[in-house]
Amino acid sequence: MNETTAGSILTTEGIPLKVSLQKAERRNKIRAILLVAPLLLFILFTFLIPIGDMLLRSVDDSYINTVFPKTFKEYKKWDRQDLPSEELYKTMFFEVKDSEGYAIGKASTRMNYAKSGWKSLLKKSKRKFKKIEEGPYKEQMIAIDKKWADMEYWKALGVMVDATTAGYYLNAVDLKYNVDKEVVRQKENRRIYNHTWVKTFKVSILVMIFCLMLGYPISYLLSTLPLKYSNLLMICVLLPFWTSLLVRTVAWMVMLQQKGVFNNLLVMSNIIADENRFKLMYNETATIIVMTQILLPFMVLPLYSVMKTISPNYMRAALNLGASPLHAFWKIYMPNSVPGISAGCMLVFILAIGYYITPELVGGKDGQMIGNWIAYHLKTTLNWGLSAALGAILLGVLTVLYWVYNKLVGIENIKLG
Amino acid sequence: MFKLIKATFLGLIAMAFTASSYAEITFVSWGGAYTNSQQKAYIDTWSKGSGVTVESYNGGLGEIKAQVEAGNVTWDVVDVLPDQAITGCDEGLFAKVDQSSFINDMVVPPVSDCVVPQIFWAYTAFYSKSAFPGKKPKNIKDFFNVKKFPGKRGIHTWANALIEMALVADGVKASKVYDVMSTPEGIDRAFAKLDTIKDHVVFWSAGSKPLELVSSGEVVMALAYNGRIGAAVLSEGKDFEYIWDATVLEQEYLVAIKGGNEKEALEFMAHASTAQALADQAKYIPYGPMRKSSIDIIKKGEPWFIKEGGNIDILPHMPTAPKVLKRAVIADPVWWADNGAEVSERFGAWKGN
Lengths: 417, 353
Fold this sequence. Notes:
Chain A is mostly helical.
């Protein structure tokens, strides 16, 4: 029998019930944490840490400072009006000559982003400095390569003297530091990223809209047809989904090019003249058509799974109460399918914004999306800082969109099924 | 009897031990007909070790740098372009190589201390004979002249070789191209020339595409990798014709990744860069070996290219044939390592606007 002492209830073992419950709850909590721990660790190591590392790379400029610490210290005294003093040349000389291993190679890659030409200059200098025994160094360095007498190279060093930099982010939006570390616009013929940002968002939004327009009726049909037909249709949706991306892309090339199947059919049936063939391939139209087809299943699947749960009785009730079919659809069916629309649009938009292989293959001169530049700098120029900055901006924009969406529609309104 | 068994047993153990201590290597190249030629010329004939795994990649140093920085190197030997060979060697991604056995036998000196020679390949203009029943384009000026030869041109989506070709088409001597490119006005001049065909180009990014574009009549002329054109002519009997003018010659090397199975990788590379191996590769693909003595082997062995129903002379299809070489631009990897990023951004802006 339980006794009540000072307002606390005891269990049969004589422990206050509150404590006992807490204990049980704690045990449950630990079990829950242990159960999700593998996944949590997995996400931490394969997702959060790499992303954090990339974000750091987008502002990190410390490596170069470990290679040229004395030069940069001396550099700060330079007035930037005339060529640097013998003293600066001398510190530079020794830090290049005495550097060990691959430090100069790595540093020169970084310096080349600030001014093209540093790479070969340092490589050549490292080789030839060995032969120079004594000063004065300025003339001898200039004799090795006249770039050492070019103010542009010295001025370019100025943007690297701090251990952190916003330079990569500036590059990512067509700005840059000038020699006095003021923010200025990039040279006109190198302005490429803003244009690409706009194009990337434009294409992604259009693809999302077209996917919704095409996907909505299909999903409606799928969810209302009897099972035996809808299963067949579902396979038609899924079959391309399971086909290789490249195969589908190449198939579209065959279909849409100027001497391709589509144009040939139109010419053969005399709908258009031979010289007026549609230009449907190697331009932005092609990018949008092909991406829409490739991403369509990502719209259809969430839409279908949400529509499947909308009871047909709602529509019947609305019609019964005198609403026109259109009105009933607009007032009853549509609002019920919003979670599916949201999920589908989010999926398609987020996937589209990172696409780059398909646009590259079918987009011709307009085929460069922001993803292409990220890949280019990751693979070819090894400018991982700029890649990271582009990626971070992309991540930031998506986060903002997500936040806006949450404010407008509410994130609990997303449903994948 | 017992002794014999014991000896055999020990011998077997020793054999098993040596066999297993020899690491397998992963060989990474560009895939397609090119990797196929490497497979036949020197991977299949590699007797040491338990084998070579072949993988494909799309160029660039990104994956390699990531592997080395993470200390998890899974690639051992990689087929790289010369500017990557320079950067990778300078940054310490590749192992140094003993070059004494081939350095005096090379057509051009090796670009870095980390490479063994492979082939020359070239960006080459070509057309289908059926597209020009009358007058045929003869040089790169004709490629850039849309009035004289109307019709679309197929060009690649990146800047390499296009700058060089545009300058030659604008009247710069092939041997002086990089002097002009090293001035800002030179680059302006190249882009001005590219402007003249901008409205008449179709861009391609996969190596097989220009052949399809020309075959289907989508374009009348295109630039392509010479090996692809050669393979289409030699193996499929296509009616393509090279325009052997201002071809831009690029080099191709093998490197060993630092921190991989370096010992085996270096041994394999020595095997893959003998004069005989490079010559054998030309039996399967019309790229030009980088070793002089390989060319001698081929000359003696002509017809060299293997084809069912009778072999074919391969030298006329090589980008290193003397009469082609006279009018060619040898791409300067040092210039591209310095200026590649800047010119690529400008090229991107040119394409997009």
